[in-house]
Amino acid sequence: MSENLPFAPEIAPSATIPDKLRQAGLRPTRQRLALGRLLFETGDRHVTAEQLHAEVAALGEHVSLATVYNTLHQFKRAGLVRELAIEGSKAYFDTNTSNHNHFLLESTGELMDIPSDVIRVEGLPQPPEGMKITHVDVVVRLAKDQ
Amino acid sequence: MSENLPFAPEIAPSATIPDKLRQAGLRPTRQRLALGRLLFETGDRHVTAEQLHAEVAALGEHVSLATVYNTLHQFKRAGLVRELAIEGSKAYFDTNTSNHNHFLLESTGELMDIPSDVIRVEGLPQPPEGMKITHVDVVVRLAKDQ
DNA sequence: TTACATGCAAACTGTTTGCAAATAT
DNA sequence: ATATTTGCAAACAGTTTGCATGTAA
Question: How far apart are CA B130 and CA A31, in angstroms?
Answer without folding.
Answer: 40
